[in-house]
Amino acid sequence: MRDRPENFYMIGSMGLLTSLGLGLALQAPTRTVWVIEGDGSALMSLGTVPLIAAYRPANLIHVVLDNEAYESTGGQPTISGTVDLAALAQAAGYTLVRRVNDERDLDAALDEALARRALMFLLAKVSGRADDGLGRVSLTPEALTERFSQALRQAASANHNAAAEPVSPC
């Protein structure tokens, strides 16, 4: 995934991403909205999972990268090894729920998500720590908000259709 104005990074607000993603999906039903979060964030926002399922936005793809750690705060272990996040999404009522363990399965699940246009929960088990060279977001929260808001305004004024580039609160 490359950086672009349509990406919104939730700096310092672990657990709030799914709420933002749901709001975006409901307000921009012709755009594909990607929520990509870690297992730590997903565990902090479990109450939003049934809310998302109740609204069932067909344009929302919810991806959880599960390394069983709160990576952004130092790698402390989460409880995702004992809690089946995919089963929780299934029980809540997500339309499609997939678990993947390798790149081939990930590609197939993402292709399915885009082809079926249905609310999807994708649990991707990942190993180890993040790449130390990954870096941090260099924009301030205020600059990210302005950049993202401007991208949404431009998209609305351009009257984008379903083929428009997706938006991603990251």
Jot down its keywords.
170 residues; alpha/beta; Rossmann fold; two-stranded parallel ribbon; 6 helices; 8 strands; 38% helix
Helix content: 25-40%
CATH architecture: 3-Layer(aba) Sandwich
**Helix/strand order, N-terminal first:** EHEHHEEEHEHEHE
Q: What would you give as the CATH superfamily? A: Thiamin diphosphate (ThDP)-binding fold, Pyr/PP domains
Unreliably modeled segments: none
Q: How many structural domains?
A: 1
CATH class: Alpha Beta
Strand content range: 15-25%
Topology, number of strands: 8
Number of helices: 6
| Average pLDDT metric | 88
As laid out across the biggest beta sheet, the strand order is 2-3-7-6
Describe the structure.
The chain is of the alpha/beta class. The protein has a single domain (7-129, 136-169), classed as Thiamin diphosphate (ThDP)-binding fold, Pyr/PP domains (Rossmann fold, 3-Layer(aba) Sandwich). It has helices spanning 17-27, 39-44, 48-55, 85-92, 103-116, 141-157; strands at 7-8, 33-38, 60-66, 69-70, 76-77, 96-100, 120-125, 168-169. Helix 1 (17-27) packs parallel to helix 3 (48-55) and helix 3 packs across helix 4. The longest helix is centred in the last third of the chain and has 17 residues, at 141-157. The radius of gyration is 16 Å and the shape is globular. The termini are close together.
